[in-house]
Amino acid sequence: MEIRITRTRNPKKKPDENSLVFGHDFTDHMFIMNYTQGEGWHDPRVEPYGPLQLDPSTMVFHYAQETFEGLKAYKTDSGDIQLFRAKDNAARLNQSNERMCIPTLDEEDVIQAIATLVKVDQDWIPKAEGTSLYIRPFVIATDPFVGVKASSTYLFMIILSPVGAYYKEGISPVKIYVEDKYVRAVPGGIGFAKTGGNYAASLMAQVEAGKKGYSQVLWLDGIERKYVEEVGTSNVFCRVGNKIYTPPLQGSILSGITRDSAIKLLRSWDIEVIEERFTIEQLFEWHRKGELQEVFATGTAAVISPIGALSWQDNEITINNNEIGQLSQRLYNSITKIQNGQLEDSFSWITSI
Amino acid sequence: MEIRITRTRNPKKKPDENSLVFGHDFTDHMFIMNYTQGEGWHDPRVEPYGPLQLDPSTMVFHYAQETFEGLKAYKTDSGDIQLFRAKDNAARLNQSNERMCIPTLDEEDVIQAIATLVKVDQDWIPKAEGTSLYIRPFVIATDPFVGVKASSTYLFMIILSPVGAYYKEGISPVKIYVEDKYVRAVPGGIGFAKTGGNYAASLMAQVEAGKKGYSQVLWLDGIERKYVEEVGTSNVFCRVGNKIYTPPLQGSILSGITRDSAIKLLRSWDIEVIEERFTIEQLFEWHRKGELQEVFATGTAAVISPIGALSWQDNEITINNNEIGQLSQRLYNSITKIQNGQLEDSFSWITSI
Predict the structure, then answer these.
(1) What CATH number corresponds to the domain at position B57?
(2) Are B156 and B185 in a shared domain?
(3) How far apart are CA A285 and CA B36, in angstroms?
(4) Contacts of A204 in chain B (CB under 8 A)
(5) For chain A (length 353 residues), average pLDDT per consecutive 10?
(6) How far B196 CA lies from chain A's nearest CA (Å)?
(7) Distance (Å, rounded) from C-alpha A349 to C-alpha B314?
């Protein structure tokens, strides 16, 4: 794919690396490619970062036909730039696209587009401890038409945001509210796709949990309302004795790439990982019996979030004395060190660009 | 509310009234109002219809925090302009907004905004048989921020589209596929809200049904996959003997305004309407016993869509010889005649402007 590059004449002032906020600052350029029925994906280009002009009838505003991804680029101590699991993100973008009736992209082209844009804006990759360049590829439906159908035109775009450590004081345990009123997703729905509707559907529970003093919600399955599914927009793991439990991917759960990284690392350390459904009652029972050693969530933004407290139906339990668990910490250290080049990439997760 | 009006200097050529397509043409003006946290909704204005300028990080592109409504304006034979059930649409917009964590609007302001915009573009209201001016109010989240939270800024907009009769040859029965693989919504989710995510989630089933030769799908409940819920984006009714069955509103079903109009009209005709859950098996059983006289869907776009055939797990049944049922026709005639002023508005559904 030949990508046309138009450089900005007005580069922005870069934010201070030590006070970066997640998702607020964007770099000097963006990648755009168009899709038109018949013509396919075409006109890949890097342009100065700037606003989109869209007709108010544009379908994405009305029917949310949209998908996205999230990944990060890092600058190693030797100055190399590396992407973490870009191939997996490109593959997942296409899984989301298929579910949402959006034409799939050539996955090599997606990686090339990311690499090209990151290289153009490489001076924006922050170097301070815990920082990285967050990469947001996304697709939106652009037909100017008010009626429910799959759009015949789309934009695929990539924007970049220098981000700080998700938790400024390093990773620290969060308090989670077990949601038993609202439902995020069910089998047969769109829960496994990275599409706006899932996130919009989750806002109310997040807001209500926030008012009660919790950082996030733990989602139960939408059918029986008892099986543990996700935490906020992250996957969830429990350490019970020396075994790790995590819910299996069964259509309603996002196939987290950090989830997969955690599973592969844990297994490489000879720790048993059991991908089986378990109930919230079971989780509380593990705690009652003193077997629940760690609970943590995995996601691109925070990598590993230890869960220090869980509230369910007026019962609140404290996990691991509200301290970071040993495995949570080990996973966090290993993943971030592979990401920034301080640890060997023995799983071939890195794309050097 | 004081609405600032800026008129276009370049009015567009109006499309031919007799070949209008649904949702393709838009009028000369649009309504916009901004929301900013702290300041609330402000700066209501009518402007020349034109593109929005939005940062690529705008939240609606990523997290689908968006709501919309659909209603119609009609010109009566005497030249009056009337809106159909505008108050109910304004109320439902707020129900959707609440579920999606979008600040609610003053419902009187919404009606005033619609009335003002329709009056500015009143020459666009088509007069041919079966035509109307479709009104699309919608709200989108506009924070330039890549992170999952409720936005702190929004746009409320209204656009107008002159539309033809949904079915060019009058109402004619459609073939429907009973969907048993994909799920649209479950209790605890967002199914009752008019928000993009529900429509995006429905596309795949619609596309697959289309490939099999069906116009739309009939959705079953997402929990037991047996109760009848909706047809496409419409509510569904069955006439069994002289009784009418329709699924009750239990969180996963959109509270259709045409649904409510149909129920109120039927009851005013002394026809029993039973809002109770029924299974797809029950529906096929009614057919087997020769009791299923009519099945029809209700929605703003088509008003009444008779269903002529239903396919479920390799069984296809033909309903009422694939002809329009007597009650379907009577409802269609009554609702459209109230809408265009040819029948008395005994339910106070009309807002004259």
Answers:
(1) 3.30.470.10
(2) no
(3) 46
(4) 99-101
(5) 97 93 94 98 98 98 98 94 98 98 98 98 93 97 96 98 80 93 94 97 96 96 96 96 96 95 98 98 98 97 94 96 96 96 96 94
(6) 4
(7) 46
